[in-house]
Give the backbone structure.
Amino acid sequence: MTAPSTQRPSTSDRRTLPIRELVLFGGLALVVLAVFATMGPAYSTRMLVEASCYAILALGLTIQWGYAGQFNAGIMGFVALGGFSATFFSIPVNHAFWSSDLPGRLGWVLLAMVVVTAIVFAISRLDRIGVPKLLRTILAIVAGLIGYLVVISWLRSVTGDIESQVEFIGGLGLPVWLGWIVGGALAGGVGYFIGHICLGLRSDYLVIATLGIAEIIKAFLKNSDWLTRGTATISPLPWPVPDPGQVGFLTARSLYLSVTVVMIAVIFFLLHRAYHAPWGRMIRAIRDNEVSAAAMGKSINRRRQEIFVFGCILMGIGGAVLTSFNGLFDPQGYLPLNHTFLVLVMVILGGPGNNLGTLFGAVLVYVIWIMSGPMALAVMHAIVALGAHWFDWQPGNLDSRALQARVFVIGLLILLVLRFAPRGLIPEKVAHHH
Amino acid sequence: MNELIYFFNYVVVAGSVTGCIYAIGAVGVTLIYSILRFAHFAHADMMTLGTLAVLLLTLAFPHAGDPLGLPTAIVMLPVAMAFTSLVAVGIDRAFYQPLRSHGVKPIVMVIASLGVTLMLQGLIRLFAGTGSQNLYVDARKEIFRIDVPGVTRPIILTEPQIILFVITIVAVVGLHLFLTRARLGKAMRAMSDNPDLARASGINTKLIITLTWVIAGSLATIAGTLLSLDVAFKPDLSFFLLLPIFAAAIVGGVGHPYGAIAGGFLVGFAETLAVFNWSVLLRPLRDSLPTWLELPNNLALVGTEYKIVVPFFILVAVLIWRPTGIFKGKVI
């Protein structure tokens, strides 16, 4: 019984002072201060910047899951897409690539791709001029297959030449914020495609499709060495603010933090307005009772599509900001655990559908997550000491096993929250009109 | 002819192997779906868990299979099946049952199953490390080479592949007999058709749910073990199985066991055909082709690294054109 539910307390206590929020945020501030005191300001600022990037991702998920009841299990893919866009726009231009004949050849292949798509699309419309439908389908499939094989073999030869002659195509050398915006747009485009297919169907299908698309995006980015250098990774990535080399770690990270905080403030404000606007009411009406919302004449699938795309855009932007901050684009570094399930825990723990709760959950869970690495190691060493003492147990690669234990804890946390606090620590506030 | 044998070895045999695995997995997913009405994402990890149980048992008694002339892992399979079924029922009691009795939406159950996925993965990696291990402990995989007269290249089959085909046939026939002849099987189908009516007519729905988990856990163990016998045990096995299995279940029509078997083979063969390099088959024709048509060396539809695209593409195509699946599955 998470946010999209019908069981809500009917008594509305009208407290003027939000005690629960104040206590929780006060506690969170204490935790953050404790981290500052023990780990030093530079480390803690880095943690806060990363937590704020995750907060953008969590806000993206909270509007999909909390506002509209759609569950996206492929956040990782949208994060990776945003990260790629930020990288591609901001890294320096590769002059060796642009001065060769390769851009032209790549352009021709892309043009061929468009032409083939247009031809196949035209063939698929042949039934309008009287061609039997079966024949049309067969023709379209055959044309698509041949066109695909031709284009893909050209593409393979061009990309092979790019890799052997100039390593990869390089970037555009543009300001990084442009990459962030385009990253959001790219993620939104993919979200539109997925939503278009799945949103009219049962919600389970959306989960499967998003899981799949995330893995495909990752596989593409990992294996397209000509585009992303693949496993060789790209670094350093420029920052929109002076980087640590110029002003020192603490100042640079603080400046970056101020950028992300401003972004969150803007997103938060816009979401707050949208939530309380007629549009937000309509979204919640669809979530809580689809049939009656449809009976009121609301276009359910269009609204769902809108909110899914908005959520994906936020995830793309968040991923772009996060990747820029890390200064390293490594397609293999995007993991379902770190970039999908962690965000899920943030949202369901903080309070789906409540932006403030989501922010709280994001910072709290990220702090716990960061601190859990060393803690897991310590606990694991203790267990192994006991195990060696009692059963002569000698496991190898201890550190990686300790980190795997965190996977278990995240899973258990999801189940416990669903069971005992389905509405999160700061639940969504439901307006009651008497 | 050599090319045809090559095709047989790399497409027919490989496709059947993958198809069997996907089919057994998809049957489990579809059974859980039809009884409990949610997509159980932890199914692929139950496979890995079952395989881990087999691996640990095999490591403990490496020569248990020798008197029977079978690989030890196969002898240990029933024990591991019982263990995995117990775990599956336990997970249901601990995590799914309370949510069910709260009457949550199916999507919340899906999220809970993702939580279970993570827990199982964490446990598996905690005990098995992250590397891959061979299920043939202290033994060698037998490879049969069948010579075809007049051809230099033999047909190659391995011992685990033959065992896989036999066990798949036994499992499918057994499941069919159970669902159509046994009293409990009929009750199960009744519950999948209409749970309220089933309950009203005196069917013990709790027993049916437990039974579903037992069957799903056993099938998952079979599929995971047979796959690992053919290749090797990897903790991230589930990761490569999840999408194909769900694609297979949806292609066949969700909640439709026979459809899931067909879907499994469809997805398995589609994957194998898509990564097969077709230019091998065209090579004998090379000399008779016109000179302007140059045959590229690589005519595979997708590279092996993009194998995951194939089930996804099938999934998308089915969701667009026939969301109920080939065999007209359940509620959408």
In short: The radius of gyration of chain B is 21 Å. The longest helix of chain B spans residues 2-36.
